[in-house]
Amino acid sequence: MQQIQSSWFVQAMVKATYDMWLKGWDERNGGNVSLRLLESDIISFQNDFYANPRHESLTQDVSKLANQYFIVTGSGKFFRNVILDPADTLAVVKIDEQGKGYYIMWGLVNGGLPTSELAAHLQSHIVRIEHSQGKDRVIMHCHATNLIALTYVLELDTAVITRLLWEMSTECLVVFPNGVGVVPWMVPGKDEIGYATAEQMAKHTLVLWAFHGVFGTGATLDEAFGLIDTAEKSAQILVKVLSMGGKRQTITTEQFKLLAQRFDVKPMQEALQ
Description:
Layout: H1 8-22, E1 32-37, H2 39-42, E2 54-57, E3 69-73, H3 79-82, H4 86-89, E4 90-95, E5 101-107, H5 118-131, E6 138-142, H6 145-150, H7 158-168, H8 172-175, E7 180-183, H9 191-201, E8 206-209, E9 213-218, H10 221-243, H11 253-263, H12 269-272
């Protein structure tokens, strides 16, 4: 086994993808994950990199990520199989010096490309680096069942969806105080949806794609997973509440303000009002 397969970042991707599959969020080849790597992460594993890495072009400018490394899931790869063969299902890529393409440095041993949503990931990474002062390193996309279901029955409005999710679980305002951004249905895998997602990522750590899935970000894979898991649990409660005829009582605005004060967070004002 190659040394890099025992690295913390490969093993963390194995765990995250398997946990996501167990949750039922990533059927077949649904979903994708990327983790930005630091030089200190990969320096010990460069002997495992390909001597002549394959170069692939990008259709958009990501010069702000020039020479940065990412570990990403592969296009068409099943999350349930990452644990069986990480070298086939994952890839370490390096953005080229011009930000117009990338090199596949490791992984995808049986061929293929990184996730078809790479455009959305890279544009979102650019935004999150800026808005988190470099703290956020993960972009995670999955098909969380209840969050998707809600996009068919709720108004596709950030404040509306955020407020309802906050109300279903006390911890939600604390976990995602900046709310849930909403992107209307768009063709996946194209530059346009990547730009639309990045625009929402400038304001929110969670972005909901109508009728499709959710994007989450965080400093670690655990943090991004936990963010989506919290929102999905709240969505599951909301689905139950709606199926039982709707709420009779809920957390009030004044109670939310007390909660925000206790945990020192600044709630999204549109949802708070």
